[in-house]
Amino acid sequence: MDGEHSALSGVERERERLPPIYTSSPPVLGRGPKQPFPSLGTFISTLSQRRDAGGRGFAIGIGGPLTGPLTGPLGIRHTVRELPPICSDVRQKQRLSIDTLPQEVKAPFPCDPVIPLRTKTTKEFQEDVERAAQSGDWREVREFYLTTFDSFVEINAAFKREANGLFNTIEDSGVNGKFVSAVYDSLLSTPQDIQKLVLKGIINSLLREWKGPRTKDDLRAYFVLIQNPQYSSTSTYVIFAHLLRQIAALSEADHHFLVHWLKRLSARRFRQLVERLLQFISTRLFPAEPDELPPSAKCSWWIPSATKVLSLFNAASSVSSPPIMPFTDFYNITLEHIDFMEDYRTWQNYGNSNRFSFCQFPFILSTVVKKAIIQKDSEQQMISQARLSLVSKVSRRQRVDMNLLFLNIKVRRAQLLSDSLDELMRKRCDLKKKLRVTFVGEAGLDMGGLTKEWFLLLVRQIFHTDYGMFSFMKDSRCHWFSSWKSDNYSEFQMVGTLMGLAVYNSIALDIHFPLYCYRKLLTPPTVPSDPNAFVGTATATLDDLQQVMPDLAHGLAELLSYEGNVEEDFYLTFQVFQEEMGVVKSYNLKPAGDKIPVTKQNRKEYVQLYIDFLLNKSIYKQFAAFYHGFHSVCASDALMLLRPEEVEMLVCGSPELDMSALQKAAQYEGYSKMDATVRFFWDVVLAFPLELQKKLLHFATGSDRVPVGGMADLNFKICKIDVPADWLPVSHTCFNQICLPPYRTRKELKHKLTIAISNAEGFGLE
């Protein structure tokens, strides 16, 4: 508590009345007028009920290591605890039950205060504010705000729907949300003295409520206080930080309640609070003015507290269906400018201990940061390997060949697939090196174009339906693994390796796997040390099957909801049939499945086993080879930071197009950005519907997606070709170039460009 009170000294000048501040020891439990205490038996009984209701054992203080004893009422020595470091697993070890506490700590404490009855309604309050604004007499409104925010008890009195109701469920916070919104929506339009009174009241409340275990009424007060719009101003950040610290220090059970209460906020209010927390973190990291905030050294707990509270909002969004906010809206772009590799190394060394790192909360890190971490981590591994090779060469007095710093792939165009497979298998120890591709018999140095062409040609062949490795699902417009059996699945391993190389070399691949594939790729996110351990087997649901085989998923959903006689009407058993290379084969979903009929009682089991068979068991060996191929390149602890959606973005790029950003980053050869043809081009492209914009990007680059780093990473170039104006545009996808004849009118350019991008086949390679 010493650090707590000294940190609050910055706001002492702003408040007129505060309880005494203890600078050398925490406040004594039971301070103030003595109250009657229950008997020890009654106390233990009450405590047990609270423990059962709240899901946590009794603890004096707010978590953290036990510190110095203090004399409390009746001369009993109490042990008070300070605020613990903010981390994700420390409180699990520190929750105490009444049976594990020392004898001197098992002392009674006063009963919960009775919440006074407040009867003001939302409508009455709004009428008071409207009347005050018109008359200039704010006394009644001032008294309301002064009373309401004076303590946690008063906050509950004002906003709890029933003053002394329990509301001890995650489904209902018991808070009158409409009234809270009305009070906060009016607050910023009140006179400055009222706004200052509210802040002073919050300071008093936070100091007064610092001691003692949390009750559900305390949680309600925190739930109300976190919504205060005054925290948008940096002048209130000291107060906001202390509120966040107390919320972050709550037990896991209390956090569980808050998560479910938060998800019931309106989407607009929820987003405001998330953006406020993100702004708080950004401003603390990079304040606009050096003296705007207290020195970072004295406020090192600000960012951990805010990040922990932000994680509650992220959890609330994630458990909602659909999510309240896209996961990308929790990214803090400011973190792209910190030393994230140092943060990553801290996380690697200390994990989820009391040493804070942003990597403990990966939802806040953008895909740009995560990609950079993976690449730098792999580069460091590559440098280590290269150093060993150099040392070995030098020690044997051999000539050093700089080619050993690269993964050199030499292939013949006519034997592209087999040569690529042989090269990748033969040089699997060099996969983490920078890729350089050479086509046999062709002159030229690989400056990126040949590498991209190699990827595009390989993907085109591998995913062709005639090749048989992957099936294209017309209904879902995605590829899935063929279930044919083989003695050698090395080609699937090559596809995984290819995907890993694409991530490492910043190449966006034009492949279409369902999201469930990327979830399997992260199961587990790091390769097990046991070579026989199962990999790539993720729990599958009907929603996952919907991504791959929507018609079958719909049929199984109808089976689950069927009201008639399932056994007689469907006539199914726990045996399924699958076509493999033109031959229909049968498989039992469980032992003797062909003799077990599907009934109303066991249909859920049938559906679950069938889904697991289709998405896991029937393709296990194929996917396991694919998994190991990918991780042979991207083996990094950083994969634990990724969501399946983010892995997809790393492999395929982002589906979010911003043609204005592409225009700003575009380069020109033979044209300038002020030439008429170029101006016509951008007028047409910016006016295209999204579908045509995607076709243009695919025509020029070989993919309709954007690299994780944004349009600037495409190195998109518009070139001039001296041909008649009746020619169509030409693209060089290996170099992300589009070549335009000197069209004379906007209409002519639009007509020719639309024809070109709408009728291009394959990858438009030239």
From TrEMBL:
One of its GO terms (molecular function) is ubiquitin protein ligase activity. It catalyses: S-ubiquitinyl-[E2 ubiquitin-conjugating enzyme]-L-cysteine + [acceptor protein]-L-lysine = [E2 ubiquitin-conjugating enzyme]-L-cysteine + N(6)-ubiquitinyl-[acceptor protein]-L-lysine. Pfam families: HECT. The keyword Transferase applies. It is an enzyme of class 2 (transferase). Its EC number is 2.3.2.26. The active site is at residue 734. Keywords: Transferase, Ubl conjugation pathway. Coiled coil: none annotated. InterPro entries: E3A/B/C-like, HECT_dom, Hect_E3_ubiquitin_ligase. PROSITE patterns: HECT (PS50237). GO terms for biological process: protein polyubiquitination. Residues 1-33 are annotated as: Disordered. Residues 427-766 form the HECT domain. PANTHER family: HECT-TYPE E3 UBIQUITIN TRANSFERASE, UBIQUITIN-PROTEIN LIGASE E3C. This is HECT-type E3 ubiquitin transferase. It comes from Poecilia mexicana.
